[in-house]
What does this fold into?
Amino acid sequence: MAGFNKVVTSYAEAMAGLEDGMTVIAGGFGLCGIPENLIAEIKRLGAKDLTVVSNNCGVDGFGLGILLEDRQIKTMIASYVGENALFEKQLLDGDLEVILTPQGTLAEKMRAAGAGIPAFFTATGYGTPIGEGKEVREFDGRPYILEESIKGDFAIVKAWKADRYGNVVYRHTARNFNPLAATAGKITVVEVEELVEPGELDPADIHTPGIYVDRVIKGNFEKRIEKRTVRSR
Amino acid sequence: MAGFNKVVTSYAEAMAGLEDGMTVIAGGFGLCGIPENLIAEIKRLGAKDLTVVSNNCGVDGFGLGILLEDRQIKTMIASYVGENALFEKQLLDGDLEVILTPQGTLAEKMRAAGAGIPAFFTATGYGTPIGEGKEVREFDGRPYILEESIKGDFAIVKAWKADRYGNVVYRHTARNFNPLAATAGKITVVEVEELVEPGELDPADIHTPGIYVDRVIKGNFEKRIEKRTVRSR
Amino acid sequence: MALTREQMAQRVAQEIQDGSYVNLGIGIPTLVANYIPDGIEVMLQSENGLLGMGRYPYEDEVDADMINAGKETVTAIDGAAIFDSAESFAMIRGGHVDLTVLGAFEVDVNGNIASWMIPNKLVKGMGGAMDLVAGAENIICTMTHASKHGESKLLSQCELPLTGAGCIRRVLTDLAFLEIKDGAFHLLERAPGVSVEEIERLTAGKLVVPEHVPEMQLDA
Amino acid sequence: MALTREQMAQRVAQEIQDGSYVNLGIGIPTLVANYIPDGIEVMLQSENGLLGMGRYPYEDEVDADMINAGKETVTAIDGAAIFDSAESFAMIRGGHVDLTVLGAFEVDVNGNIASWMIPNKLVKGMGGAMDLVAGAENIICTMTHASKHGESKLLSQCELPLTGAGCIRRVLTDLAFLEIKDGAFHLLERAPGVSVEEIERLTAGKLVVPEHVPEMQLDA
It folds into this structure.
């Protein structure tokens, strides 16, 4: 490694080391803030039997949805899959294992993995199918269930700006799961809209410090909008 | 309540409701970023038998150290108390109960309290006196101990700027424990150097969103420096 | 007459208190934002990471990076804060949101709610709903009182997989406003023109009816 | 001759790899920053919430809000990040820091370390040390080999309350550089002019000595 220069210039380099059977954690919420080119590279590489961890699974033909087309995903860990017909079909046909996980629990599982916390208690899901088979314990008279962290072999992240040290900022609500995913990858790859020089980002407002980031690549993004709601003047 | 105006104009209002025996969580690291005027108000109010949760306990005559003078603190939960002679004396004399807690565990206990997580596993302290009497569990072959969250009746916080909604930013490393304390109080009081209008702080760079904050007060600060280290030109 | 979706939103909005943080679910709850009374300041939390959600954007303001939890393009008010999903659910799970309004398939007399799955038929996932019902002290559930076929959705015991156990206290349907306590639905108000008898007929769980059941007051 | 504190820092600095994130404890470890070899980029993590700690400030740069974990006034480099204590220890506990250098009262052949408390005598607290030793994969412990009275601090079993169990792999003393493995101290290097016999005499725990023990290479 040449000091802290984490910038790579090809998507092949960005995803180098991805193998069949790995776990990939992806940032994004719906189609907002998804690492669209890193996902496309996974499709190009053709890695199979992946476990993918992401709040959603994209839509038919875009985002993580494209990994369903060649059945690259074996197990999907997500909170919401409502916008994806191919997903629903593979699930109902039994071609895809799906572990539905409450959104807050999913976010916390990623954060916990990055923070060296192997498990935590939450009230979320107690008394529901999500709590079945999990340890229940009362604190202050209220029941909680034990949830374990999720670590990824890769984390794929979409951000706005990064410097070569891997310091990252996100834009608006495209932040969502991205900073959490970034902490949870053995190899964390961030694709950004803009590269800046170290010192250009205010130290107080770095959303993901470079210590979590292994590779940075500048990409071009379609940024598809899922539901264009407007008001007229 | 008049909408979201959380600004109060006197320290008496800021600390209204503090009672003997309560738990107070305080931000700050050493003397950096401590809510010095809120601490002074606690001294003025004379509340006794307090449990105080803070990384340090100030120094003799400044910061939380002044609450030792009239023995207002019954129990201190802290990670480091090395800079305080009166503290060490009260501890060795048995006048003060001290629960030493590893710094990272302390920070996480505050964060967990604010985040609805009653307990979490950490490797920190396993095999040491800190782990004694705590549940041990292995994850992936490594032992961890179970630590519970700490909630405060009050959280007292020092920040740089706030708007009337209670959105807060901190300055440099005066951030430290403050954002965590802010989430963990039943009543969270923030004293700031500057009040700004809503919209002046960039939404992407709010360090503590107003939802955690109950009262905001503008103060004047001494900001004492513990170890002035300089280099010469 | 049963309430329209807009009227349901209008009635829920009356429950919102000045200076409160509110999370509005997808569907009818989203409409509630349009009926917040004048003079009341409310901060809307959107669980994808936005506190202080504003109106929909004008055409030239639309930004793919600025959406709400329903994936709709939105704006932020002055004084908004944007954060990551872990922080967002720290707020929710930690009990910092004052009011949550969300839809359901079924609720029951013990405050259980089912809203995320119909076995072998519909699997969309729970999204943030399980965290919201576990974290909020104060939840209003909005739903139609019965299915199109006249089957009650207010039950003795939920039949579908639960979203949360024992967490719902208030239900607004198109026919009535009810409180859940002591193992029963307590009828608080009825929709204008809807009779107590109709509500009784369409409520499968135990219903407690006081002597006088006022009609809801809605603006024309 | 036993190493000076400065020489100890110098030797530790040789272990630092290009592009690594390093946390330096109070005392001798802090001095390590002065000896990082040219051409090597290191990012110093200070557990009070600073990644990219820089030099001490000039007099007119001193800022009460800009300190390190030793409570000293410092500066930040270009490309630094500042964050809260939970985030800081997420980095540490999560194993993202590449190297931790910290002092100790005692270490033993099983990699146990005691550094925070002497019962009935000294109670300063563990600060971040317990998290650091639990979180880092790679720790170098710096300490004097023995007390002023000649009592070894490299033991068969720590006698003081532990900071961490089984976590220390490398120890640099004023006399030697040692690796801990298989229940013994393995002598890697000796300080210039210090004999193997002296090290053996002052090491209470099991010591493995290879045939050839090189002297440390230090700049003059």
User: Anything to note?
Assistant: DSSP finds five helices and 15 strands in chain D. The first helix of chain D runs from residue 5 to 13. The mean pLDDT of chain D is 95.
